[in-house]
Design goal:
Blueprint lengths: L6 H20 L3 H10 L9 H12 L4 H19 L8 H10 L1 H4 L5 H8 L14 H11 L7 H8 L3 H11 L13 H8 L1 H12 L9 H22 L4 H10 L2 H6 L4 H12 L4 H9 L3 H11 L4 H8 L10 H13 L8 H11 L3 H10 L1 H9 L1
Helix pairs in contact: 1-2, 1-4, 1-7, 2-3, 2-4, 3-4, 4-5, 8-12, 9-11, 10-11, 10-12, 11-12, 13-14, 13-20, 16-17, 18-19, 19-20, 20-21
The structure holds fe (ii) ion (3 copies).
One fe (ii) ion binds next to helix 18.
């Protein structure tokens, strides 16, 4: 997460993105909404609807001024509330209800909140059979098709290229009827536990699922590989888990973001519009789905029978302040280190996570500069 954008500028961009989406549903043109939202701090000392009204009038010089001002006002409030979640967690439904209650006082039309509610997704896909990345799926089919003997290490090397393969193997290994006393938390142990013959079948079955192509998946997969390397390095440095377990955590931490690509089409279009206009993924997920991809991913890996500390880490990797889990803090730092803007930037969170895992910022930065895998991945990204 880069911290070098002016907080006010990015707030205005997000407000504009929300205003355009709300306006699309309310039948208000995008351009004056975006202009008013982008300028709402620079031209007027705002926080007051009459100020917004004057600004909107300047932008459109017409009869829509009041409607534009109202939409920007509502979206400004939504953005402020979503920004404040780091300090005080609330459900998005509660936030929308609270903003509606400001309507009489602030002078905007409370019906505008209904457009935001309409934007939200009512049915999130339930049990998902997630796809394996196309290149890895081809590799699995090519390499594992031959009926010969395989080494654990051979299968492990392939499974560590894809979150779904790694997760499926741990899922089978930790499935209760197998009666394992201790849950497997590395891919190697999962393969050893279920046996090479069974592991090969699991991998072939996962790789043969229908390939699902989505513009959003490629970057998630390459980011997952990069995070696996970062989490392994952080694990080795902090001693909180073994590097092999760190690899698994990094690989699956964003599995919920893969699931988000299966949203109903209408929601997915709104999701992509907002992300493309500068809203971070977790912000949009909370707004549209009521939970971020960490919470969604935790539900998925719980069904894969992952150890509880992994489930907690994935659930809270974008809200580390909501959990005592040190692994959630470790995963948050890996996100920060990877430079992928999945969340609102927060140096407070970075500092708190560093303290929780017992690491200094200088050490993290030094590790980043030494990490040759990261440099290589950034070079080809
Ligand atoms: Fe504002
Ligand atoms: Fe994430
Ligand atoms: Fe991530």
């Amino acid at each position: 997460m880069s911290l070098n954008h002016s907080a006010e500028q990015v707030h205005c961009r997000r407000t504009a993105a929300l205003a355009v989406e709300l306006g699309r549903r309310a039948g208000v043109a995008a351009q004056p909404l975006a202009q008013t939202a982008l300028l709402h701090h620079s031209l007027e000392p705002l926080r007051h609807s009459s100020g917004l009204g004057r600004l909107a009038w300047q932008v459109v010089a017409g009869g829509d001024a009041r409607g534009i001002a109202d939409i920007v006002q509502v979206c400004n409030l939504v953005d402020e509330q979503l920004e404040a979640l780091e300090f005080e967690y609330k459900e998005v439904a509660t936030i929308l209800e609270e903003i509606r209650s400001f309507a009489a006082f602030e002078g905007f039309d409370p019906a505008l909140l209904e457009y935001l509610r309409e934007m939200r997704c009512r049915e999130f896909p339930g049990v998902l059979k997630l796809p394996v990345e196309a290149g890895t799926a081809r590799l699995v089919c090519r390499t594992l098709r031959a009926p010969r003997e395989y080494e654990i290490r051979e299968l492990e090397a392939i499974a560590l290229r894809d979150p779904v393969l790694a997760g499926s193997l741990l899922g089978v290994a930790n499935y209760a009827p197998y009666g394992r006393a201790q849950r497997a938390s590395t891919v190697g142990r999962a393969i050893a536990s279920i046996g090479v013959i069974e592991a090969r079948k699991v991998m072939l079955a996962a790789a043969m699922r229908p390939l699902f192509t989505s513009a959003g998946l490629g970057p998630i997969w390459s980011h997952s590989l990069m995070s696996a390397s970062l989490c392994a390095a952080l694990a080795a440095h902090t001693g909180l888990l073994s590097p092999e377990e760190g690899l698994v955590l990094g690989l699956v931490h964003d599995i919920g973001a893969v699931a988000v690509q299966f949203l109903p089409r209408e929601t997915l279009v709104t999701y992509r519009n907002l992300v493309a206009s500068g809203c971070p993924a977790t912000y949009v997920e909370r707004l549209l789905l009521g939970r971020d991809h960490g919470e969604i991913g935790a539900g998925l890996i719980a069904r894969w029978h992952f150890p509880q500390e992994f489930i907690d880490a994935v659930r809270f990797h974008h809200q580390p302040e909501r959990s005592p889990s040190k692994l959630a803090s470790l995963a948050y730092l890996a996100e920060f280190w990877s430079g992928r803007d999945e969340d609102l930037p927060s140096f407070g969170r970075v500092e708190a996570c560093l303290a929780r895992v017992g690491l200094a910022l200088e050490t993290l930065m030094e590790m980043a500069s030494r990490d040759s895998t990261l440099r290589a991945l950034q070079a080809v990204a």
